[in-house]
Design brief:
The chain is α/β, with parallel strands linked by helices. It folds into 2 domains: about 260 residues, Acetylglutamate kinase-like (Carbamate kinase, 3-Layer(aba) Sandwich); about 35 residues, no CATH class. It contains 9 helices and 17 strands. The strands form 4 sheets. It has an 8-stranded mixed β-sheet with strand order 3-9-2-1-12-16-17-15, sandwiched between helices. A 4-stranded mixed β-sheet has the order 8-4-10-11. The chain has a 3-stranded antiparallel β-sheet with strand order 5-7-6. A hairpin with a 5-residue loop joins strand 6 and strand 7. Helix 2 crosses helix 3, helix 6 packs parallel to helix 8 and helix 7 runs antiparallel to helix 8. It starts with 6 loop residues before the first strand and ends with a strand.
């Protein structure tokens, strides 16, 4: 068993697998994954045990759209199954890309994907007020049909049409945590908690049931890092460093900030919802639960950041 190596949990955004509107095919997504994995391999080469988590928002959207188009021929795909499908397909892409990147190493690490369920509280307040948009836009007639036939919550979205909304509950417990732990003990690179995990709830008898919900990927990654007592939490994003006054004349890059500073900047509104805010919140949660340090940067600056030459470090 290999336990002396430091453990890094690395979160990769789902949107980073799709470069632009012209490159959304599976082949295009694999090319993006392969580029990201080139940098993840650098993390492995630096001597870390590694867990890779990833987003899946666009990919789930594609599955839901295909399901809508095929509705007259085939059954609808439940949201929890969409999460499982994308965990498998994106995990496969990461496994293949990492294999190819490390194929000439004297001792090539094994990479394995764990299809991961994440328990949420069935009484989480978000189930009473669903707000997370998923899937494509609909006209009012289609939205009404889904509301009546499928029990969907649908809302009008800024004059652009109607969209389905679902709950976004907080992650409580990672069901496959022990499997992830045992793989790491045997020096296997793990892909897990994809898309924030497949949301499940417990019924009155403690049995698991899939939930129509979406768990924030960064919060689930933070929970995983806390439960595994990771040495380092890395949030991979589209920018090299966190900025104050982002895209304003007085924009300022941050090389390092303390937990107290991160909380103050968050309270001052420097980080946009749906962008940098959930990433900083996830890091705050990790550090407040005993974590020592975290890093935010883009994939190409990952290795330089580990050497102290780039990225934004957040310390307790």
């Amino acid at each position: 068993m290999t336990t002396e190596k430091k453990l890094a949990i690395l979160a990769v955004g789902g949107n980073s697998l799709i470069l632009d509107e012209a490159h959304k095919s599976v082949e295009d997504q694999y090319a993006a994954v392969a580029e990201t994995c080139r940098h993840i391999a650098g993390l492995v080469k630096a001597g870390y045990r590694v867990v890779v988590t990833h987003g899946n928002g666009p990919q789930v959207g594609f599955i839901l759209r295909r399901s809508e188009l095929a509705a007259k021929e085939l059954h609808q795909v439940p949201l929890d199954s969409c999460g499982a499908d994308t965990q498998g397909s994106i995990g496969y892409q990461v496994q293949r890309a990492m294999y190819n990147e490390m194929r000439d190493w004297p001792q090539r690490p094994v990479v394995a994907t764990v299809v991961t369920q994440v328990l949420v509280d069935r009484n989480d307040p978000s189930f009473k007020k669903p707000s997370k948009p998923i899937g494509s836009f609909m006209d009012e007639k289609t939205a009404t049909e889904h509301r009546q036939k499928n029990g969907w919550d649908v809302v009008e979205d800024a004059g652009r049409g109607f969209r389905r909304v679902v709950a976004s509950p907080k992650p409580v417990r990672i069901i496959e945590l022990e499997a992830i732990r045992r793989l790491l003990e045997n020096d296997i690179v793990v892909v897990a908690v994809g898309g924030g995990g497949i949301p499940v709830v417990e019924d009155e008898k403690g049995r698991l049931q899939g939930a129509a919900a979406v768990i924030d990927k960064d919060l689930a990654t933070s929970l995983l890092a806390k439960e595994l007592k990771a040495d380092l939490l890395i949030i991979s994003t589209a920018v090299e460093k966190v900025c104050l006054n982002f895209r304003k004349p007085d924009q300022k890059d941050i090389d390092r900030m303390t937990l107290a500073e991160a909380k103050r900047y968050l309270a001052e509104g420097h980080f946009a919802p749906g962008s940098m805010k959930p990433k900083v919140e996830a890091i705050i949660e990790f550090l407040e639960s005993g974590g020592k340090q975290a890093l935010i940067t883009d994939p190409q600056h990952l290795v330089p950041a580990l050497e102290g030459k780039s990225g934004t470090w957040v310390v307790a």
